[in-house]
Amino acid sequence: MTRERAFVVGVVGGRGGAGTSTFAAALAARFARATATALVDLDRAGAGIDVLLALEDADGVRWPDLSAARGEVDGAQVLALLPRWGPCAVLSADRQRPTPPEPAVVADVLHALTGVCGVLVLDLDRSGVVAGESVAAACDALVVVAPRDLRTVAGVLALRPQLVGHGALTGLVAGGPAPGGLGADELALAVDLRLLGRLPVDRRTAAATERGGLPLTGGVARTAARVARELLAAA
């Protein structure tokens, strides 16, 4: 993949509790095997994606430390200061300083990182996307993580106007279980989005996360690998 700027992938949940941050992290870990990658936490209501990755005590800057990062931001310097999850850089919110970054700061920091990374994976804030107050329109690809239920259908339809029409590859990763028997293909058809992958019920990943960090193996990781390949092929 040869590009002058980073390939930017936004990940958003079709509804709350979809496992968006978990999939965004798994996707970033896969990209990081091949190119400089940063996982960026933009979930305004989250406690920090560093907690999911067991990095909450790791040295490095978080969004509150970048509150003065405006204008010509040095992307290489920001990247060097971020904590690492293996080869992947992580820009997280901070559970102890929960104030979200200003939109102008987000824009300038992301612009800087696109010049020094091969891929940025953005864990988008769902409410911000619905309200049109996110950077979804600046993404090259958008991945909707969608449990297979009717509530998700309504949630994705609420998101859809803000996701399509910008020229980004937009697709669905359908998860289970399906209490009413809604299939992945049926879900994709109902919301008129391309089906990128199917997430299996992966209790091992969920349990491992609770014990201290997201594993790099299991059903979520395998689906992330397939989706990463498809996105890179379309880049």
Structural overview:
This protein has helices spanning 20-31, 49-52, 75-81, 103-114, 126-130, 150-163, 184-191, 203-212, 219-234; strands at residues 7-13, 37-41, 84-85, 88-91, 119-123, 141-147, 169-175, 194-199. Strands 3-4-2-5-1-6-7-8 form an eight-stranded mixed β-sheet, sandwiched between helices. Helix 1 crosses helix 9 and helix 3 (75-81) packs across helix 4. 47% of the residues are buried. The model has no long low-confidence stretch (mean pLDDT 91). With 235 residues, it is an alpha/beta fold.
Count all strands and give the number.
8
Helix-strand string: EHEHHEEHEHEHEHEHH
Structural class: alpha/beta
Overall body shape = globular
Quaternary status: single chain
Report the β-strand fraction as a percent range.
15-25%
Low-confidence stretches: none
What is the gist of this entry?
37% of the residues lie in helices and 18% in strands. It has 9 helices and 8 strands.
Structural features:
about 240 residues; alpha/beta; eight-stranded mixed sheet; 8 strands
Walk me through the topology:
Blueprint: E1 7-13, H1 20-31, E2 37-41, H2 49-52, H3 75-81, E3 84-85, E4 88-91, H4 103-114, E5 119-123, H5 126-130, E6 141-147, H6 150-163, E7 169-175, H7 184-191, E8 194-199, H8 203-212, H9 219-234
